[in-house]
């Protein structure tokens, strides 16, 4: 716990943790990276999709060219008698499968964004309640230590959960400056462990009469809401799309793309690769994008090194916000004195103006 550490050790750890802000890229670089990520949603995803479906394109083109060879040189006349009604039947079935696939993937993606954004919101709200509801009059040193400890732990929670969602193997480099405050084992560290430490600090505030019981209830409710969002991201990370459905969809698309050249053999002949490639890239590309959206937390979701949304940047901004909240709570008495002095000055000015108005009226 934070209170059992020597004061000098606490100050050193807090100072080292605050230096993590200097480890963040400049704000302009962060924004440029975000803009680059957004601009890559078009070009990079298209290139990645083309690379991913290249073997399906090759397979369907080989089949299409083989049909052209049979039609021109082996007297294969079946394509001329091909009934397009089979296209409509199979096309409707494939459209239903693809719509369901993309709808599920899109909903999964937005649920992931909402859950991660909820973590950011509840962390700021929790720290605001701890800093604003704790009363430092009787034990200012203890209250300040708990505030800084909670800020450190909440930043550590966001960083730990981000690295877990990104499936990062090396977590020690980013967590070491913060985890040293509690001497925690980084290899077994989880967000739930950090929440339990924060709950202990809140209980300490309650037992020392540094916060009133009704406000403790509000703080604990915020902890529960934060835990729910963390659990939601864990659920999304561990839930996979049903494998039999994905395989069935792949088989259906393959059957449909092998039927497409049959209808175009007589008209396109050796140019059959154009409609075949277009249809194959479109159908298998949709499936590929659905697979990508089912991995919303990956660092390579858009392309190599480009995530859908930059959680690292959000954690750095959160870290800055947390220290600002602690600093504002620390200097609250100074602002109180400043406000009181301004109020007294305004009263004096108002009194002089009122006296002047009365004198002018009497005159």
Q: Which features characterize this protein?
A:
mainly alpha; elongated; single chain; 363 residues; 13 helices
Explain how this protein is built.
The chain is mainly α and 363 residues long. The protein has 13 helices and no strands. Helix 5 (85-133) runs parallel beside helix 12. The protein starts with 6 loop residues before the first helix and ends with a helix. Mean pLDDT is 75; it is low at 1-10 and 19-42.
Question: How would you sum up this structure in a few lines?
Answer:
This protein is mainly alpha-helical.
How are the SSEs ordered, and which strands pair?
Layout: H1 7-18, H2 20-23, H3 27-52, H4 54-73, H5 85-133, H6 140-165, H7 172-179, H8 191-207, H9 213-238, H10 243-268, H11 273-293, H12 311-330, H13 332-362
């Amino acid at each position: 716990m934070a209170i059992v550490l020597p004061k000098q050790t606490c100050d050193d750890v807090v100072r080292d943790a605050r230096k993590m802000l200097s480890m963040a890229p400049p704000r302009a670089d962060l924004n440029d990276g975000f803009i680059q990520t957004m601009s890559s949603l078009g070009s990079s995803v298209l290139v990645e999709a083309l690379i991913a479906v290249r073997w399906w394109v090759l397979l369907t083109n080989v089949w299409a060219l083989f049909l052209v060879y049979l039609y021109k040189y082996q007297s294969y006349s079946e394509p001329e008698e091909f009934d397009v009604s089979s296209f409509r039947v199979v096309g409707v079935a494939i459209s239903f499968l693809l719509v369901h696939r993309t709808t599920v993937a899109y909903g999964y993606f937005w649920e992931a964004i909402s859950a991660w954004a909820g973590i950011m919101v509840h962390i700021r709200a929790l720290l605001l309640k701890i800093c604003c509801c704790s009363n430092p009059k009787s034990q200012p040193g203890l209250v300040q230590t708990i505030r800084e400890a909670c800020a450190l732990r909440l930043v550590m929670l966001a960083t730990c959960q981000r690295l877990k969602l990104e499936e990062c193997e090396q977590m020690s480099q980013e967590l070491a400056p913060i985890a040293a405050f509690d001497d925690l084992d980084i290899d077994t560290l989880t967000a739930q462990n950090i929440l339990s430490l924060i709950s202990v600090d809140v209980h300490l505030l309650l037992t020392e009469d540094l916060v009133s019981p009704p406000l403790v209830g509000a703080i604990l409710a915020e902890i529960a809401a934060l835990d729910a969002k963390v659990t939601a991201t864990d659920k999304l990370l561990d839930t996979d799309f049903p494998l039999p459905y994905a395989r069935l969809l792949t088989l259906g698309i393959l059957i449909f793309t092998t039927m497409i050249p049959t209808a175009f053999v007589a008209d396109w002949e050796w140019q059959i690769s154009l409609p075949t490639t277009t249809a194959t890239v479109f159908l298998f590309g949709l499936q590929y994008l659905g697979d990508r959206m089912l991995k919303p937390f990956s660092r390579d979701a858009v392309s190599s090194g480009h995530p859908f949304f930059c959680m690292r940047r959000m954690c750095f901004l959160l870290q800055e916000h947390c220290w600002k909240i602690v600093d504002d709570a620390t200097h609250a008495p100074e602002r109180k004195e400043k406000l009181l002095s301004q109020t007294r000055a305004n009263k004096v000015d108002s009194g002089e103006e009122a006296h002047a108005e009365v004198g002018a009226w009497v005159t």
